[in-house]
Amino acid sequence: MEISVTLAGFISQLLVGLSRAMILFIVASGLSFILGVLRVPNVAHGSLYMIGAFVAHSVATAVGGSSGFWLSLIAAPLAVALISLVAERALFCHLYEREHLMLLLFTFALMLILGDLTKMTWGADYRSITAPPFLQGSVPVLGTALPRYNLFLLVIGPLVAVGLWLISTRTTFGKIARAAAVDREMVGAIGINVSWVFAMAFVLGCLLAGLGGALVAPTVSITLGMDHTIIIEAFLIVTIGGLGNIWGAMAGALIFGLTQSLGVLFLPQFAIVFPYLAVVCILTLKPTGLLKSVW
Fold this sequence. Notes:
With 295 residues, this protein is mostly helical. The protein has 11 helices and 2 strands.
């Protein structure tokens, strides 16, 4: 089988893969943060991503124009954060001491409930969002045309990574959260309300899922079931990157996004297989992940 690949085509797919990796990273980083601080394998994370996309569509449609799009990027993460806060205060805060298997089954059940609630609220129709004129069209990059929205994602992804890293390592909240993850009783003994620290960590991680859903809305069809693929990919990304490691999530997302994108270029009929082959190879050579796991 003859494969003809031009330099422009290669660069185009490379840039598209990088932009796809940024969406994966934003969602996976939230999951990784929750894993690192709370030790909760939140299967419902993908459902919150889906809800973020639906909320973004509702806000963008109701407001209209460019203002609707920008407002949706704010409203969707905040709506998901509110949902996650209610879930954490009502349910999760009573389960942190349970075994991981029980937490996994609980979040799986929550995923099913959120899926049904989403269907009841928005129905089963496909939806889409149009990016504002400023982000429509394409610009020449390295001899190829890249959609403006993809360039926008290439800017947002690193900003989220740096912001989450600064919160985790340079703020009082981040330091307390990391300390509580290691020794909850000791942190509580000095008068800190660990329960609310965990709540805020959970909300922050889920907010990133909502942000990912809002950002992906102009690039895909918003529909029920979009949570299933993203949660599988997010778990694989945090696993190969190192459980709870933010920069590991970035590395894993880049590997996942680029292998899939370049696979489309070279062997399109097997493109979906390449990211999973990369996961198998990495975990075979380094079972603990690319970077240090916090588990």
